[in-house]
């Protein structure tokens, strides 16, 4: 009994004998078959499968258009271009995100402005956004943190009032609902990522969904060097071979090989989301009574697809800091992570002049948060192992216990 309670970090037996990652893909034989079929076909890239994938993604989220990109970051870059962002413009975003949500603003020569997060949902605070709006503000990039939609209603009210474009970073929120509506059809443009830890994967990949035809056309052209062959758009026409590069775009295309994987994965998305919700529910139930940790607060308006499950440590009830608890969980073979180091705290952002104490709520969350494993192919045993390890470690460091 004694050795079972002894933490692995102190030489005890780990809860698991094998390492459980915090997230991973779920690829089955159907997925593999879909990819192999494309490998045997005429087009490996820029063929018919890309458009099919785009049509299916758009239909799934209820948007008119979807434009696939080589990754989510490229898709965000495309959306900042389509929004017309330029030098001198400011864009308000959250620091509690992956760097790409802010980097895409800098790619266009514009300036990210970091608004603080809500202390309960950890999503960008509309009040903080409002306080940062200036005549230079052109857009808002909210992030649906962990899968819980940002306060899109209040954000849209601000966008309407100040004539701002909303680009939603929904890398965490494929399959999430906001006020009963699927994420992907609400904001001016919405980005999803198909990185292997996200809800569905294409290896690398991303997409922008939109209801706006003008954005759609710009995005299509941007991801392919700024080139068009569209007769209606050509300024000149030298003959059937003729195309025009009308602005500086990039090669940000997704391949048909990847799109085939995407189409096959999309068929399983509802099942994946259902599993994620079930596991989150198991965690909520298991941790509800533990006063040393706070489980994720969910608003009435949101139905999260649970990309991440984060626990927040109530450090005044613990004899160890986040780092020690993190390391202890890792030694129990639980793949923990931290989402996120606030973007303005990253050395590059520090170098370009961002103050380090800009967003107290985000900075405080960063000190207290740990991400625990959550992915659809986790077994019941995996989930129980995580719960056992969290309880074991928290119990050990609890001041009361
Ligand atoms: C994953 C992610 C991205 C970037 O997506 P990639 O496909 O990896 O480029 C952007 N924002 C957030 C919040 C993400 O989680």
For this entry, give a set of tags.
about 400 residues; alpha/beta; Aspartate Aminotransferase, domain 1; Aspartate Aminotransferase, domain 2; 2 domains; seven-stranded mixed β-sheet; three-stranded antiparallel β-sheet; 15 strands; about 15% strand; globular; binds pyridoxal-5'-phosphate
Summed up:
The chain is an alpha/beta fold and 401 residues long. Helices cover 37% and strands 13% of the residues. Pfam families: DegT_DnrJ_EryC1.
Note the topology.
Blueprint: H1 2-5, H2 29-39, H3 48-61, E1 65-69, H4 72-82, E2 90-93, H5 100-107, E3 111-114, H6 126-132, E4 137-141, H7 152-162, E5 165-169, E6 177-178, E7 181-182, E8 189-193, E9 206-210, H8 213-222, E10 227-228, E11 244-245, H9 256-266, H10 269-287, E12 293-294, E13 302-303, E14 309-313, H11 322-331, H12 347-351, H13 360-368, E15 369-372, H14 380-397
Parallel strand pairs: 2-3, 2-4, 4-5, 5-8
Antiparallel strand pairs: 1-9, 6-7, 6-13, 8-9, 10-11, 12-14, 14-15
Helix pairs in contact: 2-9, 3-9, 4-5, 4-8
The protein binds pyridoxal-5'-phosphate.
Pyridoxal-5'-phosphate (PLP) binds at residues 71-73, 97-98, 100-101, 143, 169, 171-172, 193, 195, 206.
């Amino acid at each position: 009994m004694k050795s079972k309670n002894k933490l692995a970090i102190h030489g005890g037996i780990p809860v698991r004998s094998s390492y459980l990652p915090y997230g991973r893909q779920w690829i089955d034989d159907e997925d593999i078959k879909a990819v192999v079929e494309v490998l045997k076909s005429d087009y490996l890239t820029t063929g018919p499968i890309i458009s099919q994938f785009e049509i299916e993604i758009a239909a799934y989220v209820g948007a008119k258009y979807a434009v696939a990109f080589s990754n989510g970051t490229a898709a965000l870059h495309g959306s900042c271009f389509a929004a017309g962002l330029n030098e001198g413009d400011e864009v308000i975003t959250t620091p509690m995100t992956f760097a790409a949500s802010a980097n895409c603003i800098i790619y266009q020569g514009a300036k990210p402005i970091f608004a603080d997060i809500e202390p309960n949902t950890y999503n960008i605070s509309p009040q903080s956004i409002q306080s940062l709006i200036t005549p230079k503000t052109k857009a808002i990039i909210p992030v649906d943190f962990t899968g819980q939609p940002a306060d899109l209603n209040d954000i849209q009210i601000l966008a309407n009032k100040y004539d701002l474009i909303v680009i939603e970073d929904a890398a965490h929120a494929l399959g999430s609902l906001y006020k009963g509506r699927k994420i992907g059809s609400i904001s001016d443009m919405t980005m999803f990522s198909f990185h292997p830890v996200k809800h569905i994967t294409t290896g690398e990949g991303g997409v922008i969904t939109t209801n706006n035809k003008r954005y759609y056309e710009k995005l299509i052209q941007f991801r392919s060097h700024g080139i068009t062959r569209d007769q209606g758009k050509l300024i000149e026409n030298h003959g059937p071979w003729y195309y025009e590069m009308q602005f500086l775009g990039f090669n940000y295309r997704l391949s048909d090989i990847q799109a085939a994987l995407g189409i096959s994965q999309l068929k399983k998305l509802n099942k994946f989301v259902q599993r994620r919700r079930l596991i989150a529910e198991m965690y909520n139930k298991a941790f509800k009574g533990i006063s040393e940790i706070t489980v994720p607060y969910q608003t009435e308006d949101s139905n999260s697809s649970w990309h991440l499950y984060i626990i927040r440590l109530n450090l005044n009830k613990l004899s160890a800091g986040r780092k020690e608890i993190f390391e202890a969980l890792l030694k129990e073979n639980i793949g923990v992570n931290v989402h996120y180091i606030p973007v303005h705290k990253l050395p590059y952002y520090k170098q370009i002049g961002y103050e380090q104490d800009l967003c107290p709520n985000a900075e405080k969350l960063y000190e207290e948060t740990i991400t625990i494993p959550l992915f659809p192919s986790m077994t019941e045993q995996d989930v129980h192992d995580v719960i056992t390890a969290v309880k074991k470690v928290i119990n050990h460091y609890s001041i009361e216990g």
